[in-house]
Amino acid sequence: MVLIEGGTFLMGSDEFYPDERPVHERAVESFHIDRHAVTNEEFAAFVDDTGYVTVAERELDPADFPGANPADLVPGSMVFTPTARPVDLEDWRNWWRWQPGAHWRRPFGARSSIDERMRHPVVHVAFEDATAYAAWAGKRLPTEAEHEYAARGGLSGARFAWGDDMQPGGRVLANSWLGRFPYRNEGVGDAAPVGSYPPNGYGLYDMTGNTWEWTSDYWTPRHLRLSDRPVDPGRRQNLLATASAQEGFSTPRRVLKGGSHLCSPEYCLRFRPAARSAQAEDTGMSHIGFRCARDA
Question: Which Pfam families match (predicted)?
Fold first, then answer.
C-alpha cells in the first residue's frame, strides 16, 4: 500500500458531466491505498481461505424476479460484447449481455478461465464481494473523495491523472477505448495486467482506466458540499444514502471511480479522476474491479 498524506483539494469538475459538479474544496485525512487493483491471484487467495461465494455465483431466488421463466434464472453476470457496426450509443443494451456462468473465475462465460490472467484485476465483483475481501484483508474500500484525491497524484484541478492533455506527445497513459465505440478498438480491448501503464505522481497504478473501482460512498446525482457538515462517518453515510435515494431504483447504488478500458472519448470520457458512475450494489460486470484502503 501507499501512504497518502492528508490535505485539501478541489474535487469534481464543471467541464464534463453534470454528476461531477460542483467543483468544491474537500478535506481528506491521511490514509493508505493499494498500489494497484486487487488481482485475480489475490482474490483467489481470499476465496481459498474463506470459501466465499460471490454474488454472481449464487443461485437466484424466483421470488425476486416475478414473472420470469425459472429456466432463465441461472447465476451469471454482465459481459461486454463489441458490436459488428455502429449502433445507437443511447442504448447500452447494444453491447452488454447477460452471460450465464460468468463470474470472477470465468470472466467471459463458463468456458473461459483466469489461468492466464492472474495479474489482471478481478472483475464481476459486486459491492458485497469487494467489502468481504477488504474485511478479510484488514482493510476497507476507499471513499469517493479518497479515490479521487489519490488518483490526482498531487496535480490540482488537472483533467487527467497526468495533466490536461489526453495523450501528451501521442503517448497513451491509461487503458481506455481507442477507436470507434463499440465496434472498433485499436487499443488493448480488454483489461490489462495491473501495472501495465505508468503510475501517477503518488506511485499508484491504473487509478484511471483499466477497470472501474468500487468506493464506499452512495451515489448522488451531484456532489454534496460535505466540507461544512459534521465529519462523523455514520452521519456522512446517512446523508449520502438519503441524497442517493431515487425513484425507480430498489437497490442502493454506490459510486464507481476511475473509468475502464471501455471508456471512449466519443461515448464515455471517464478515465479521469473527477469522473464517477452509479452502480447497483448487487451487480458486478466484466469491467468493474476494486482496490482497498486503510486508515493511516
Answer: FGE-sulfatase (PF03781)
Exposure string of 210-222, with b = 16+ CB inside 10 Å and e = fewer, is bbbbbbbbbbbee
**CATH number for the domain that contains residue 285:** 3.90.1580.10
Q: 217: which 3 cell numbers?
A: 460512498
> Residue 232: exposed, middle, or buried by beta-carbon count in 10 A (0-12, 13-18, 19+)?
exposed
Does residue 281 belong to any structural domain of this protein? yes
For the question of whether the overall pTM of this predicted structure is more than 0.85, the answer is yes
Are the CB atoms for 123 and 287 separated by under 8 Å? Answer: yes
185 found inside a domain: yes
Q: Which residue has the cell 435515494?
A: 245
Domain count, the chain: 1
Q: What is the three-class DSSP state of 133? A: helix
Query: Strands 253-257, 212-218: parallel, antiparallel or unpaired by DSSP?
Result: antiparallel
pLDDT digits (tens, 9 = 90+) for 164-222: 999 999 999 999 999 999 999 999 999 999 999 999 999 999 999 999 999 999 999 99
- Assigned domain for 182 exists: yes
Strand 293-295 to 31-33 pairing: antiparallel
